[in-house]
Amino acid sequence: MNNYRIEESFRIYNRRMDAIYSEIYSLRESCSASDWKLLQEGFWDKFKAVTGSIAGGAGKAVGNVTGAVSKSVDYVHGLGSTIYDKGVELGKKAIEVTKDFYNKVKASILQGIESIKKAPGLLWDSVSNLCATIAGEIAETYKKAKAKGEEWAKAAKETAVGLYVSMAESLSGLYASTKEWASKNIEAFKKMVVEKRKELSEAAESARKSSNANIKQIGEAISNYFAKFKDGAIKVSKHLGMLTIGLVALPFIGVYAITKKAYELGDELVDASSKGIEKLKAGLGDAWKNMKVEFSANKEEAEDWWAGLSDEEKSKAKSSAGLAMESFRYVKTFESFNR
What we know:
By secondary structure, the chain is an all-alpha fold. The protein has helices at residues 4-26, 33-51, 54-57, 70-79, 82-117, 123-148, 150-172, 174-184, 186-195, 197-208, 213-228, 240-262, 270-284, 286-296, 299-307, 311-320, 324-327.
């Protein structure tokens, strides 16, 4: 899919916020120390009052200044409101730019999801493209905001959380439509899974090492699935649900790697993508639970598979995949993989 609109929204947002930041700091030399402090308080009182609710209240009218620091209010009464009002004006501009930006990106995400639904055979590539674009642009924006100070970074982070959650909610909507398509187009679905096996396996192996329990669950399910079946023996008809979740969720999980490694942001944005994972899990509902049942229900099939291996093949299985393949025989519940 074409992510031009998403990337352009980020570029415009950064440009406009840079202009507001520059305007604030261009006034510093013409202000006394107390007026400069007052100007900043006016800006942040306005910005803090609204920015924290962007994800839940995007598009709502901007209210009057709330939560102002009492001493700054007294300051305004004592010195006049010109400087403080200028800060409020700049804060209002920033909020309007941020809300407009959030709405545009969210709309682009929804549009992207709809285009993916029309081409389910390209699911992995399309979802990976969308997630990589969003995560990368958020990380770059956050890095720029962080360089301007703690408050700017905090505002950017709150917006990032909202966008990650929106993306996760939208992705969860792909599950049902993709699974329905897959059930009617088994060979096409299998072709995609086989072609993307390497990427899926690598993403799953990375996910299974995560400290996030939800991410770990998906990673272990997909990793053990591919450890069991060779390309020609992949039984997608029995594992449509699990594989669909993997195709949808693993690219989103990749935002951890993008935000933490490629952009060197440490753990500062992990809570944003973590909240997204929780929302994705909630959106998948019964499908998430069924993935566990689906995998653990194949214990008898796994026993037969293991019994059919020669001693040499069993030895190779143990050494090449650790004890994962052997322990598969004893799985009674999906959580066994999480021990």
